[in-house]
Each structure stands twice: as structure tokens, then as C-alpha cells.
UniProtKB/TrEMBL annotation:
Name recorded for this polypeptide: Tartronate-semialdehyde synthase
NCBIfam families, A to Z: PRK11269.1
Catalytic activity: 2 pyruvate + H(+) = (2S)-2-acetolactate + CO2
GO biological process: isoleucine biosynthetic process; L-valine biosynthetic process
Domain Thiamine pyrophosphate enzyme central positions: 191-327
């Protein structure tokens, strides 16, 4: 067997694992890997900040289902990656971050840019490891891909000391290949018990979480729901797992990203089959209210997730796709396909009688109108990318999604600035897709330098900037404290002109101030982005003090009706 530079072996492993694009920034401590990569078929996209690189790898992973890769050098490169690692860990996204490192014999001497990135990264990764010997290189990377994909997916960090990178190892790519990843099937006994609970319940719901999307289990979910005629709700991470125009769609419940009728349907249910959902606090609200009057079946691929937030009446360990398939198979054997019955009809009644308005004609523009126009203009195959803030909440409340992997959101960690680099990752994976990044003005400014990346590599997508000139979510959270402190971002004087900023990057942009101009601007942006092969921005100036209906303290807001709440407490967190 031939001895080759160990970084060449690593590159061959990356290629065989299906990695065709990586995002990173070269530096002195990672150059042996870059030297090996330059002769490969892997495309490298040079980002402007290592956090941006992790978010781009994250976006790439969410739409491909494969493991995204981000690369940086030593020291600050690794610490800059921590937010991206945390985001991927929180949302169960498989990425691998690769960092350079000082030589092994210098690590204890406080050498230049030497930091113990492995210990720093451990709380936000499934595995953080430093390569100790050149001979371990291909096998550590194989294991990294296996761990990132296995069970509940997540991130891995591999730290590469410069002297190890320069070493050699025995390696033959023809004798090597990806390690197997187990897809656990549920035991038949709990599946049968779950089915009996579903059949005897009077008002059952299926709750589809992000695990259904990750597992590509949308077809199995739909077959089960249609056979038993059970309404389906989704969590924020589960948007797209079930088409929102389906008669059995029962909305979203929660204290922020929810529909009024979704909350009402949930509160009337008596049994919830939750598949691939974590029961996050923004979904559940007050647990006593959330649990009262209903039983729960919790399906998750990760055994320790079951019972973490509260104890369900039945727990099932299994992959979302195999478990939903097993439920449908047993249902088909013991129960004929159910026809129309009272509970789905009740959910449909709630959907028809408890909608939120989105047809406002007022100027300044009310935010729900923005999402109405997005729904009307873009087709179901458009991929939307959005992050955190009031615009995420409005998006969850108003935006419709019909297909999996078409609505990407950093749901749990919620890092500002995620949208643009994530959109770059999506478009790099699927150049033919229409991609729209919906951002807030403050979030955009966190990583706006990544627009330069999209411009350099001719990566076209549309940025819809919802601008209320405030830290809107924090301002709303301050209302119970009777304060309006440190949240003003007014741009009238000495502020950021986002249109001019985009033009400075060489990218077209327009500003919209009235609702009738939104859709023409979207049409222009879509056509212009395709024509010039660049990101194009539509900045929509919305009502400056617009609030999102998400708590009892907000019931009096005139443009929204009171919301059935899952939490009796006033919303207090940003």
C-alpha cells in the first residue's frame, strides 16, 4: 500500500463522503490541507468570516441531507466557528468544522493562535477531537462523518496540528468507503400500543417536528395521516413536513410561531403523537397548560430525548421514517381507511373561523402583508431561509410551506446574521433553485459582509429585508417593563442605507414603502437576480412599532385578534 501525505487521504475521504463544496478561509496553520485540496474536485468558497462559513455549510447540509464542511485556521478561526457549531447542534444539522492548530510540541507554550479549541467546542458538538498522528487521519474523518450522520444528527469539530498535517500515512482509496449508519427500526410492540391509542382517541393530533424533515419521512407521515384521517400539526422546524394546503393540516401551536386556530386545535386535542420533536419551550409554553387534558406518544431516534422535557405516556425509539411506515403498515392491517369524521371537520372549522388578517393596505406597511405577498408570488419549490426576530415570528405565523427542505430556519440557537450565508450554502448545493433569504435589518448587519462572497462567486438569490428600524423583538419584550431602551436603529441620520450598501457590493437593490409595490419589486428582484447572477435585495419598510401577536399581554393590539394561548404567562424573553 502506498504512503501518501495524510491530508491527501483526508481529501479523498471528503470526496467519497459526497462533499463537493466546502466553505472556509485559508490560514498558515491549515495550508497543508489546502495544498491537498487544490488538486481535488472539491469546490472551495472563500467566506469573509468563519461564522459565515459554518452557516453556509449548515445551509448546504439542510437541503442536501449530507454533511456540510467548513474550514478555518488556528486560534480565532475556531472560536469564530462556535456559534455555527451551536446552531447545528441545536437544530440537529450534520456539519464538520476543520481547524488548523499549532504544532503539538508548542501547544503548552501559549504559541501564536494556539487555543484548546477541542475543549471549547465540546459542549456544542457531538464529537470534538484533535488529530494526534498522521496515520489516524483518514479514520478520524470517517468516524466524524459517521457520528455527524448517526442518531440525532449534529456537528463535529476536528483540530489538525500543523506538524500532523505534514505527515504521511498508508492509504488506498479503492479499499476504503463510508462507515455504515444505523437506521433504527422501532419494536413492533410499542408501535401496536401507539396505534391502539390513536384509534381510541376522540381528538388525536400528529405533531411533526424537524426530525420528520431530516429523515425525509414526509411521504410516510402523509400516508399514515390520510389512512387514519388524523389532523397534522408541525413545529417551526417541521414546516414542510406536511403540506399546509392539505385538508388535514392543523396549523402550528406555540407561544410565538403559531396560528390562532392551531393553538385552539391543540388545546382541544386529547392525544398527541409527536414524531421527531423536542418539545422546545417556544412551542410548549407553560407545560401544565400544554399537557393538561391530553396524552402524549413521543417518537425519537435519540433515546435520551424521550422524557427530557416531560414524561410521555408512551415513548418509542426509532427513525421517523421507519416508525411512521411501521405505524401505517399495522394500521392498514387492523383498521380500514377512515372516512370523514367529526374531529377533522372541527379542525377545519377552526381554520376557517380563526384566521389572522394579512390583507392590510395601510402605509406604513404592516408586516403580515409582506408575508401575504411572499405567499402569492413565490411557488412551492422556492426555498426560504430565515433566522430570528419578529420577522421569524411573523414568518411562522403567516408563511405557507408545502414541501420539505424548502423552509430553513435556525430555530433553537437563533443566531442573528444566519440568513445570507445559509442562503449561499443552499444555492451552492442547488444552483437551479430559487432561494429567498428573509431577514431583519439588524440581523442582516451581523454578517452582511457575506454578500461579497455571493457577489464574487456569482451566487444569485433574493434578500427580502423587513426593516422596522428597531430591535423589534427586544422592544416588544420590553413592553411589560414599561421601557423602550437601547433598541432604536433609526437610519434617518448617520445610519445604514441598505440599498447603497448592496450597490457597493455591486448588487442591485430597491426600497419599498407601500404594500402595492411589494409584489412588483419581488418580480423585479427574481428576474434581475437570474439575469445578473447576483444577490438582489428588496428592502420593505414596515410599520416602525409593529408587534407580533404572541402573548396575553398583546391581546389588545388592534390589528390582531386575541390569541388562544398555550402559556398563561406574559411573554418575557427575547
Amino acid at each position: 500500500m502506498e504512503r501518501i501525505p495524510c491530508m491527501e487521504a483526508v481529501v479523498k475521504v471528503l470526496e467519497s463522503e459526497g462533499v463537493d463544496t466546502v466553505f472556509g478561509i485559508p490560514g498558515a496553520a491549515i495550508l497543508p490541507l489546502y495544498s491537498a485540496m487544490q488538486h481535488s474536485g472539491i469546490k472551495h468558497i472563500t467566506v469573509r468570516h468563519e461564522e459565515g462559513g459554518t452557516h453556509a455549510a449548515d445551509g448546504w447540509a439542510r437541503v442536501t441531507g449530507n454533511v456540510g464542511v467548513s474550514i478555518g485556521t488556528s486560534g480565532p478561526a475556531g472560536t469564530n466557528m462556535i456559534t455555527g457549531l451551536y446552531t447545528a447542534m441545536a437544530d440537529s444539522i450534520p456539519i464538520i468544522c476543520i481547524t488548523g492548530q499549532a504544532a503539538r510540541d508548542k501547544l503548552h507554550t501559549e504559541a501564536f493562535q494556539a487555543v484548546d479549541i477541542v475543549e471549547i467546542a465540546k459542549p456544542v458538538t457531538k464529537w470534538a477531537v484533535q488529530l494526534k498522528e498522521p496515520a489516524q487521519a483518514p479514520w478520524v474523518f470517517r468516524e466524524a462523518f459517521r457520528i455527524a450522520r448517526s442518531g440525532r444528527p449534529g456537528p463535529v469539530l476536528i483540530d489538525l496540528p500543523i506538524d500532523v498535517q505534514r505527515g504521511e500515512c498508508y492509504y488506498d482509496a479503492e479499499l476504503d468507503g463510508p462507515l455504515p449508519v444505523e437506521v433504527p427500526e422501532p419494536r413492533p410492540e410499542p408501535v401496536r400500543a401507539a396505534l391502539e391509542m390513536l384509534l381510541t382517541a376522540e381528538r388525536p393530533l400528529i405533531l411533526a417536528g424537524g426530525g420528520v424533515v431530516i429523515a425525509d419521512a414526509d411521504k410516510e407521515l402523509r400516508r399514515l395521516a390520510e389512512h387514519l384521517q388524523i389532523p397534522v400539526q408541525v413545529t417551526l422546524m417541521g414546516k414542510g413536513a406536511f403540506p399546509e394546503d392539505h385538508p388535514l393540516f392543523a396549523g402550528m401551536a406555540g407561544i410565538q410561531t403559531q396560528q390562532r386556530w392551531g393553538n385552539a386545535a391543540f388545546l382541544e386535542s386529547d392525544l398527541v403523537l409527536a414524531v421527531g420533536a423536542r418539545f422546545g419551550d417556544r412551542h410548549t409554553g407553560d407545560l401544565d397548560t400544554y399537557r393538561r387534558g391530553r396524552r402524549f406518544i413521543h417518537v425519537d431516534i435519540e433515546p435520551t430525548q424521550i422524557g427530557k422535557v416531560f414524561e410521555p405516556e408512551l415513548g418509542i425509539v426509532g427513525h421517523a421514517r421507519t416508525t411512521l411506515a411501521a405505524l401505517h403498515e399495522q394500521a392498514a392491517q387492523i383498521a380500514p381507511a377512515r372516512g370523514s369524521w367529526a374531529w377533522p371537520e372541527r379542525v377545519a372549522e377552526l381554520r376557517d373561523t380563526l384566521p389572522r388578517r394579512d390583507d392590510f393596505d395601510a402605509v406604513p406597511i404592516k408586516p403580515p402583508r409582506v408575508f401575504r405577498e411572499l405567499n402569492e408570488f413565490y411557488g412551492p419549490d422556492t426555498t426560504f431561509v430565515t433566522a430570528i426576530g419578529l420577522y421569524q415570528i411573523w414568518s411562522g405565523q403567516f408563511q405557507r410551506t408545502q414541501l420539505p427542505h424548502r423552509y430553513l430556519v435556525c430555530g433553537q440557537a437563533g443566531p442573528l446574521g444566519w440568513e445570507v450565508p445559509a442562503a449561499i450554502g443552499v444555492k451552492a448545493a442547488y444552483p437551479e433553485r430559487e432561494v429567498v433569504a428573509v431577514a431583519g435589518d439588524y440581523s442582516f448587519q451581523f454578517l452582511m459582509e457575506e454578500v461579497a462572497v455571493a457577489a464574487q462567486y456569482r451566487i444569485p438569490f433574493v434578500i427580502v429585508l423587513v426593516n422596522n428600524e428597531y430591535l423589534g423583538l427586544i422592544r416588544q419584550a420590553e413592553l411589560p417593563y414599561d421601557m423602550n431602551y437601547a433598541v432604536d436603529l433609526h437610519y434617518a441620520e448617520n445610519g445604514v442605507d441598505h440599498v447603497k450598501l448592496m450597490e457597493a457590493f455591486g448588487c442591485p437593490a430597491r426600497r419599498v414603502t407601500d404594500p402595492e409595490s411589494i409584489q412588483p419589486a419581488l418580480r423585479w428582484a427574481s428576474e434581475e437576480s437570474a439575469r445578473v447572477q447576483l444577490p438582489v435585495m428588496v428592502e420593505v419598510m414596515v410599520e416602525r412599532e409593529a408587534n407580533a401577536a404572541m402573548g396575553q399581554s398583546l391581546d389588545a393590539i388592534k390589528e390582531f385578534e386575541p390569541v388562544p394561548e398555550l402559556s398563561p404567562a406574559v411573554f418575557e424573553t427575547g
